[in-house]
Amino acid sequence: MTTPDLSATAATPAEQERLLRERLQRSGYLADADLATTVWLASALQRPLLLEGDAGVGKTALATALAQSQNATLVRLQCFEGLDLAQAAYEWNYGRQLMAIRMSEAAQNSGSHHGGSHDGAGRVRESDVFSREYLLERPLLRAISQSGPCVLLIDEIDRADEAFEAFLLEVLAEYQITVPEIGTIRATHIPQVILTSNGTRELSDALRRRCLYHYLDYPTLAREIAIVKTALPEADTRLVEDAVQFVQRLRREDLAKIPGIAETLDWVRALFQLRHSHLPEDMSAVLGTLGCLLKTREDRFVMGPDRLRQLVEGRRTVGVAENANEQAKATT
């Protein structure tokens, strides 16, 4: 069983971490120091990494960039309610098995018509059709079967059932899958495992114990500006800074769906395509692009021209308590 070669690429841990950050940056992902350290430790310790955070903060993008930066195969398992073993790990190729049995029976019948032996020596055995060649590989089995570097992304694990977590423990702890008919299949090259969760349900303690953990929050203003500039170097610097500042203020609003980094990138791309070098003064022009940021009817309804201008100018909505205090001050 071999391991990822990241730990062998530099002389010291600090150099290895720096090299990892540089590789991720070349792949278009800007990781801060804490995240880079955690990713490096997960690789060095051969432990899965559990990333939690709101949707759109870059959890899935990290796995994609990590695979690209290491020239590794990316295997993705998208979790959902009702996910089972056949969809996640393996299932038997029943059609091929049935064909093998019928071909064996046809060969026997042909032999008997020509005076062949009837001792059953040519009859297909159970072990013949329940062998590795009749297994259909699903993402988990495909990942531990890779002969080279591999990143296994188990995306949105919180959407899967708790029963699926119990099966996943063997894969995460031992990098192996047990198939009752043929035994245990062990990884020849340990994949780097990234699990993501949006926090829609609490994950089991057993799953958490097997993973390193990092909470990925929305980026700071400076980091998000750097992310957008890296992804869209052709966009005007003032446009990027104005747009990111607006999105940062927008995230503090009471929204049903907070825009993530992907929405910021889409919005800046839209503004750039409309030939804007900065946020336009005409709020109607901005309103027409908000479909890139606001993805629910409720959020779009509350964002009228007046509220939009307040956000552009950096003012937040005055809450009920704040408004009451202001009125009290005015009467004294």
Any overview of this molecule?
By secondary structure, the protein is of the alpha/beta class. It folds into three domains: 5-88 and 138-215, P-loop containing nucleotide triphosphate hydrolases (Rossmann fold); 91-129; 221-312. Helix content is 48%, strand content 12%. It is built from 16 helices and nine strands. It has helices at 13-26, 33-44, 59-69, 85-88, 94-113, 126-129, 139-144, 162-174, 205-209, 221-231, 237-250, 261-273, 283-287, 297-302, 305-312, 320-331; strands spanning 49-52, 73-78, 90-92, 135-137, 150-155, 176-179, 183-186, 192-197, 212-215. A five-stranded parallel beta sheet has the order 2-5-8-1-9. A two-stranded antiparallel ribbon has the order 3-4. A hairpin with a 3-residue loop joins β6 and β7. The longest helix is centred in the first third of the chain and has 20 residues, at 94-113. It starts with 12 loop residues before the first helix and ends with a helix. Mean pLDDT is 87; it is low at 316-332.
